[in-house]
Amino acid sequence: MNHLLKLPRLATRAFNTTAKQMKNRVPEHQKLFQEDNGLPVHIKGGTADVVLYRITMTITLAGTGYSLFWLLCACQPQNK
Prior knowledge:
- 72% of the residues lie in helices and 0% in strands.
- It has helices spanning 2-21, 26-34, 47-75.
- Pathway: Energy metabolism; oxidative phosphorylation.
- The chain crosses the membrane at residues 51-72.
- It comes from Umbra pygmaea.
């Protein structure tokens, strides 16, 4: 039962220590994303953003094509 009474104190202590150790990197990201370099905002983060964008677009286009294929198959008359 003593362990349950100590749990809230331990939880707040854990969250307070991590918050103090974290550095605020928002100004760095603001400079990066507000820079006028001709890139769209969804790929300004670098190579990882470009790869994620291309994977997302590939999955979206493949899913759309797959859905249209099955819609075409569903609207064809069935031979009995």
